[in-house]
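Input.
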Amino acid sequence: METPSDRLHAACLWLESEQAAITDQLIQWAEIASGSHDTRGLQRMADRLRSDWQQHGLTLQPTPVTEIQEIDAYGELVSWKTVDALVASRRPDASRRVLLAIHFDTVYEADSVFKQCRWLDSHRLGGPGVVDAKGGLLVMMWALAAIERFQLAEEIGWTAVLNPDEEIGSPASAGLFQQLAVAHDFGLLFEPCLPDGAMVSDRKGSGNFTVIVRGRSAHAGRDPESGRNAIVLLAKLIGEIDRLNDFQLGTTVNVGRIEGGGPLNRVPDLAIGRLNVRVDDRAAQSQFESQLRRIVERANSNEGFSVALHGGFHAPPKIVDASTWAIQRAVEASIATTDPAIRWQPTGGACDGSKLAFYGLPNVDTLGPRGGNLHSPEEWVDTATLVPKATSIVRLLTAYARGGESIG
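Output.
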């Protein structure tokens, strides 16, 4: 008679036998461009995901998300619609439920020259999004396929969310995550682990802000004194904002983009500065927001200028608490057979796990494969970690279904 342990062993062997297919699939997925603003590419990726999940008997349901609001190059607030999120679920009425999530957008937009994969050595594959996060998408899909194929976790329910906007802060899918957080016991997210294999514990909070300076246009030769140079005032503001960096406190500010100006014989009446800030905790978050508002308020006292601030924190700081610690211990147990010495490390990066923690759902968010050089043309993934990562999720959820792990 076949036992649950027999089925678990068979599932692990099945995943190992699919290593080549999983790697080939990763190359195909990575070479589908799906930048956060590339809605055509995102839809192609969504269609491919739905087809590949269906091959395992898993149905991804398109699920509408809200419109995204951004400041355009003219300083105006505009709204645009991204593609639907994709949601799959099994046994939604189960008393114990797990939320799994990862994004299918990347930082490589349609005009990126980084479009193809290439082997760097026998295991390391370079390519756009191979580790952030199309490798994580594969780990999640194959783990769930094994669980359902071998009937390993029928005592629990699960929901999988694939969202199209994480790389820009998940402005469209945040509401979906908030809705689902209250209906699950804990979360598993498939962002990549760190290049040395360490997994993330605490995360800094992250916010994106836009400062819009409007001045007064004038002829730079005939009557420059009647103009109000928006670029000059923004430059002064940027100096003040940069001084909000406090490395001892853990607050880092990066002014990442400047827009404005035109003909050199015209005083520019519009300048836009875009910045990202990272903070260690909620107190530092509140302090930075107050300081930034004061800088903008003072700038508005300049005659002939109007200064506006847009944006906010899209990922609150994530601090490991007792519930998260319990999930970490369960993850360690699931990986112990292949990697007995897991190391947990805080990071300045943010992800959707930060939102879910803020919404009350404890989670571990670096269950994807090992890789490095994220967000660059040197991005790579260690393909030898794909199957072990999927196997660890199979072991984790099987143990939880049997009541062997206290999680969440």
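DSSP finds ten helices and 20 strands in the chain.
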